[in-house]
């Protein structure tokens, strides 16, 4: 993809080797558009070659300029004055460092005061209008990096990268007990417990889930670890660490009920993301600073 104009416009210039390819093949094979996105743009007459609408079966020549305009969709979230910490942004995506104690998007139990409402307010102040499309999710009390696509093309490409395990997601956590091995992998299936709709557990009928961990620092009765996920199951880190006997400090849902004097949430932070920029395919690495409450927790543990 080249000649970037704005978030809603995709532009591609046909080179010598691509001369003779159909417009359809350029859209699918070179520009990587999905069938759904292509059909919608075609239906709305938003696909142009040299500023003209032509058949998808037309053959293109070197130097032809293909342009696809993705129509803006209205944002459905009510703007609310909630702090949003932007750590990376480009024409296709926004990445923020989410604070703890706030849900990502409205639900029945949390209809407002969410990250989505805060981003809507950010866009209102900027006079921007793109639809908010979350690529990943974080639990209410987990802090760290959230990816938001600015257009359906970026959503399509980044979601596929997530599915194909191209996006590298790294977390840090503080867990109960001292982990003896410096490195380890937990490959255990995760599913619903059956008793509580919120709680997951390792269960044979669950979905395969893989978590890699690395010990960063050991304390008297706790361990600081970095975790990388191959899969993205709900509560995966929390369930896997409990399963091996090391629940997250502050994670009352999964067994740590005696940590009010240390931290008032699970000590889990989405620290970094590595992925390919949707248009340029350039590798992007983004890191979010460890929040104050986890820093304070580490100071307490070092002082024990």
From TrEMBL:
Originating organism: Caminicella sporogenes DSM 14501
Function field: Responsible for synthesis of pseudouridine from uracil.
Keywords: Isomerase, RNA-binding
Leading EC class: isomerase
GO process terms (BP): enzyme-directed rRNA pseudouridine synthesis
PROSITE patterns in alphabetical order: PSI_RLU, S4
Catalysed reaction equations from the record: a uridine in RNA = a pseudouridine in RNA
Family: Belongs to the pseudouridine synthase RluA family.
Gene3D superfamilies: Pseudouridine synthase
Segments forming domain Pseudouridine synthase RsuA/RluA-like: 92-243
GO MF terms, alphabetically ordered: catalytic activity, acting on RNA; pseudouridine synthase activity; RNA binding
Record-linked PANTHER family: MITOCHONDRIAL RNA PSEUDOURIDINE SYNTHASE, RIBOSOMAL LARGE SUBUNIT PSEUDOURIDINE SYNTHASE D
Record-given protein name: Pseudouridine synthase
Catalytic residues in the record: 139
Annotated EC: 5.4.99.-
């Amino acid at each position: 993809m080249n000649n970037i104009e704005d978030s809603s416009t995709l532009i591609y210039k046909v080179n010598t080797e691509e001369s003779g390819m159909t417009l359809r093949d350029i859209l699918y094979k070179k520009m990587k558009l999905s069938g759904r996105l292509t059909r919608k743009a075609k239906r709305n007459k938003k696909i142009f070659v040299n500023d003209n609408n032509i058949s998808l079966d037309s053959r293109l020549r070197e130097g032809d300029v293909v342009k696809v305009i993705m129509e803006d969709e209205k944002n459905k979230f009510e703007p609310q004055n909630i702090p949003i910490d932007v750590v990376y942004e480009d024409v296709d995506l926004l990445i923020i460092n989410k604070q703890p104690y706030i849900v990502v998007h409205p639900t029945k139990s949390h209809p407002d005061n969410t990250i989505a409402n805060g981003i809507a307010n950010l866009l209102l102040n900027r006079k921007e209008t793109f639809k908010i499309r979350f690529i990943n999710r974080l639990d209410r009390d987990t802090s760290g990096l959230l990816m938001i696509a600015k257009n359906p093309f970026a959503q399509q490409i980044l979601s596929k990268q997530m599915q194909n395990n191209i996006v590298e997601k790294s977390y840090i956590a503080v867990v109960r007990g001292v982990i003896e091995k410096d490195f380890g992998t937990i490959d255990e299936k995760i599913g619903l417990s059956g008793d509580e709709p919120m709680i997951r557990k390792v269960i044979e009928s669950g979905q395969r889930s893989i978590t890699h961990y690395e010990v960063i620092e050991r304390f008297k009765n706790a361990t600081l670890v970095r975790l990388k996920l191959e899969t993205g199951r709900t509560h995966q880190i929390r369930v896997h660490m409990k399963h091996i006997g090391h629940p997250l400090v502050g994670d009352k849902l999964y067994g740590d009920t005696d940590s009010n004097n240390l931290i008032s949430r699970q000590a889990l932070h989405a620290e970094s993301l590595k992925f390919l920029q949707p248009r340029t395919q350039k590798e992007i690495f983004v890191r979010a600073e460890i929040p104050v409450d986890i820093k304070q927790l580490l100071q307490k543990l070092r002082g024990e």
